[in-house]
Amino acid sequence: MDKLISEYEDKLPRKVIDDIRANLPKGINQAKLKKIMDKALGEYENAKVNAGESVGIIAAESIGEPGTQMTLNTFHFAGVAEMNVTLGLPRIIEILDGRKEIKTPIMQIRLKAPYSKGKDIKEFALSIKETKLSEITTEFSISLADSEIEVKLDKEKMKSLNLTNTNVVNSISKQLKGFTIKDNKELIILKSRAKEEALNEVYKAKEKIKDIHIRGVKGISQVLPVKRDDEFIIMTSGSNLSEVLQIDGVDSHRTTTNNIFEIQEVLGVEAARQAIIEEVFNVIENQGLNVDVRHIMLVADTMCVLGMIKGITRYGVVSEKSSVLARASFETPIKHIINAALVGENDTLNSVVENVMLNQPVPIGTGVPKLVTKKK
Amino acid sequence: MPEEKKSKTEKKAKEEKAAEIKEEIVAEAADIKEPADEKEVAEGEAKAVQMAEKEAEDTVGKEAVETADTGAEETAGKEGQTAEAERDKTEVIEPEESHVFKRVKSIVFSVLSPKMIKDMASAKIVTPELYDKEGYPVDGGLMDIRLGVIDPGLRCKTCGSKLKECIGHFGYIELARPIIHIKFVNIILNFLKSTCRECSRILIPKNKISKYKEVLDEVEKEKGIEGRRQKIKEIIASLKTINKCPHCKARQKKITMDKPTTFFEDEKRISPIEIWTRLEKISDDDILLFGLVVDYVRPEWMVFTFLPIPPVTMRPSITLESGERSEDDLTHKLGDIVRINQRLFENINAGAPEIIVEDLWDLLQYHVTTFFDNEVAQLPPARHRSGQPLKTLTERIKSKEGRIRHNLAGKRTNFCARTVISPDPMLELNEVGVPDLIAMKLTVPERITEWNMEYLKKFVEKGPKKYPGANYITRPDGKKKKITEETKEASLEEIQPGYTVERHLMDGDLAVFNRQPSLHRMSMMCHRVRVLPGKTLRLNPAVCHPYNADFDGDEMNLHIPQTEEARAEAEILMEVQTQLISLRYGLSIIGCVQDAISGNYLLTKNMILDRDKAIDLLAAIGIDDFSKLPRKEKIDGKELFSTLIPEDFNFTGKTREEEEVTIKNGKLVEGYMDRSNLGEGSGLLLRNIHQKYGKEFTINLLGKIFRLGVEVLLRNGFTCAVSDTDLPENARMKIQETLSNAAKEVDNMIGMYYDKKLEHLPGHTLSETLELKILETLNKARNETGNIVADFADKNSHTMIMAQSGARGNLLNLAQMAACVGQQAMRGKRIKKGFEARTLSNFKKDELTPGAGGFISNGFKTGLTPTEFFFGAMTGRDSLMDTALRTPKSGYLYRRLANAMQDLKVEYDETVRDSSGRIIQFEYGEDGMDVSKSEKGIINVKRIIKSIT
Question: Please, what sign has the CA dihedral across residues A204, A207, A209, A213?
């Protein structure tokens, strides 16, 4: 039986074959199976795209049209407490723009065995969260006489975070140069090594040390352990994929972020493409709209063909078009025409708008086949 | 145009000629409409159009040049012109029409050289005067008739043709001093900065030049032309700091630019003359390193010595009612330029002091700059006397109202109509009801042959005023004649095979129907015309969904295709039945709505009819074969419905309430019809019928089912009443109780909050926790009231039936009417805004009660308190704002998507590629399946297996 199915493997897409395998009733005979396979194949052949189909426009329509129905400014909190996520139209725009800085970066950290069952999950989460010096201090003060900065530590907080004074001192000394550090239990005193330092500099230094990174992963400002299905995962706001993946106990295969550029950097374009597809698809689905993945795939693919993410903007995908007139018809026409004139660019009119401009048939759909009649 | 370029064109032309096709020049000219404008801007990037041409070689070259210069500004107008011109041409050739069309193959952009400007010009402009005393254009003036004609009755001196036939011709003026082209200042600056001030060589040592070139070629291979541009930018940037020429060892001075058009070299101004000489000395080899191509542009061309004057046809003057002439903005600007230029000439010749000459020179520079772009940042825009800024070349091209997006990428049509729409379920889905008034204005051209002569004569006989008549006849030579009551007889005599009759629109004609915004292709579908009395366009309410139309005053457009090709495409690709399956998600996008759903729901759920009633129903929906009805006196609604379904159809599905629906051998044996089976975008019933029986059958069946639903309601009566929302006393008590319990609970929580006893949720402050908890409690309470309403409301009330069948409304709506409207939320939170520390002045400061946070505990029927009403208005306004802000945003996203992806298509090898042949996907959607041919994006394996086993 498997043999019969495998005969169809080059002809049918994997998904159809898997579906058939999963749904076959037990003990089906060869003849019937053959019939099923043939019928599936027949339907598949029938459902194939026609050559010349303007799939680009169709995809654009399929995403653009529901765009009008999406809500703006959806901040979503599922359950009792979850973090804010940009959703709806703003999120789609953000992804398709190819923005490097996104509004609400979020990570979903999946964990390996002991943690994923919920063991020490809170501690683990806290160890990921970025802790800055200002969070574990009660007071920063400057003694004018000696131009020293006194940092008063919040013992309680430090205890809950499992931090000791030495930890703090070490991280300060690593990140702040030019100061001698004295540790006297309650206070940490910083004294500038430079002589005759202007008070101004000390003030600046004071602001600087507030942001000193004590522990955790940089950029992760909030952590929240959540139970999903029957495993515990950690949701974070703020994202830093490359560092989180290196932490022991993190399941690096299933941990994701919603920052597509980070995915591109860490895992490459192919992963970024997949991330675009998933993100866009989730947002659209979340709004209760129905869009086939194929359309989103096509958009993601146009964004990624060049080996890196290009946004759908005048600086990104559109600027890569081969036709001068097509570029000019989008935005900043004058710039495009002038640049074209400088190099004597030749527009060979093989896409859509140029031919619309010239009142000629467009080479797409029914405009693809060419029929020439000879005049006698 | 450079000489060799010309010969290239010629060669191409010859080849093309060898390739057999004989074409017409006329079509050509039409195709080059837009260049003229742009050409100006970029100091005229001449578009040498490589085209196929016939006959003698020298004419070829000339032709190419001519096409490049000519240009008219209004696309629409232009079209008219050529169409007419074409007709005149064919007059000579007689009846035969040319079926081979001219095609522009490619367009090359380049910068106009001074020589080119002079060559393509047909007049030298020397005087700013426009007309003489008689109102006749002055020779050598800006309206010179050698530049084309815009007055009826005059003939163009250059080409000899009349108004509308002559496309206009360029002129030129000789500038007294060179003027810098504003659009090229940055490039000029680059040239000045990175070439030697003495020897004009690029500031790269000789031995390195070839290496740089190699690097550039490499970059281009890898990253394309954009990458090359980037690299060139880097190279140029690196040259700016070099202060000793590697060729002649001359010391370089620092060059700065004072925007917009003045250049300095160490504080000393460089005059455009000097700039010109420096640019002129740069060798061709060096230019290449700046990324310019010498065949198309020389740096010194970026400084004008001659200025091309656009033809009058692109800047026509209008005659006001008072008989006064009002000139175009461009003419005004050109007048300024010519006037100042003349004064400059005179002053120079008279030996005026340097300072006066320089002032005039700067003024001329200003005028030329604003002629190209009136929105240059550092310059005050040139204005009309009224103070309104002039619209010069750049403004003409740019932006949504500019030439490109307004006239070139967007076209206008004739043969269209627009009015209010209204519903008519008695129409078929693919029909459109057209008012007779419109049908008599819109026409369909029909060619007379021997065989349809008699048929068409009848239309001419009736004339334009009686309904199936005709408005025009067209002679074989293209002359159009209007049919009037008087000329009717003559026309009737005249017509013979070969003539065309433009007859009135009739039943069955094809028409393209459209509603804006046209967001997807289903916004423009082809319908068949039904001429009806009345004054609105009518459509079947089932097709509202793809158009997103309703009847609260919506208007729609109707277009009548005029050629056989257009009609064929409209019928095969655009007709309603071809669009049944959405290409967005692969399900039926057209389905039953409203009454049709509730009607079928009632019919199939539990209705039993007398046989005569059943037959009456079937007859009403257009079925005259009653043999499928079971031979019984009482007929079940399910049986009646089953008569519509083909006998070999099998289907299983679910209703909205998750009950089984089974159709076995064309009989509805279990379940009932509701929205999840009949409605649009849901369920597979319609999709499966489409799959099995095809589009024609589906659309027909859908029409019948729709009408069946409507007829059932017509016969039984169906309405909403206030009493539908009445609840029994105990239910109302229960609701009251629930609400007061919730209020108490909230009170408790507030108390706990003040006592700091509230346990706070992780990641939230105490007050946030309180907010969340209150919100949760109140929502729970509202949902409970909803459940109570659902339990106690009359199941058989029409409102409930509508909600249950999915025709309109839902239980929540009913609960809001009958019991409690619920919490009004803005951005997912209770209402906070308004006065200081409170929402309305009716409450105390910092009040946290449900009422103060926008909880509406009354139902719509009992009526809202003033404060509740106000909160409702707040959320209402908020949602209006949301829509208003969203529309432009999503519109822009859509435009960008469409622009970026418009040229992607599936090739014959099943890959998806863009217009330059770059592969985007190896197989469309990873399996090559067309969504609109799939069932919700997949092959329905389960159905296949079921059908076989």
Answer: negative
